Amino acid sequence: MSEPPPFSPTVMxxxxxxxxxAALAEALKPLxxxxxKYGLLGHIRGTPGIxxxxxxxxxxxxxxxxHTAVTSLAEAGLVDDGTAHxxxxxxxxxxxxxxxxxxxxxxxxxxxxxxxAARHPDLTEALRAHMRSxxxxxx
Length: 139
Prior knowledge:
139 residues, mainly alpha, 2 strands, 68% helix, elongated
């Protein structure tokens, strides 16, 4: 019988993350969103007027991928680019429909958060403490 591999917090965190990312993806699917589009919509709401290049940087995707995803969000009526014409900078905004969808998503995220905290209270507190530490370092 072989020894189990040594514990790796990095691998464990990635494993836990993938399980809950899959749960989030399932919750978003009936709302017509992917985790990537949800993230993009959140960045656009958090920074009205954000450019495609900044959106791509924050999302860690290419500008081309950001354009493709935002085009899809705009076609769904969730995002507006009031200055979208050749040669001008974009100024992305979440529409009222996008805001309404984000409100619905917040309910699903709150449900997932509740489930996670109920199953993993110690990990929840450790993550909260880590977040506080990171935020304190940035000030």
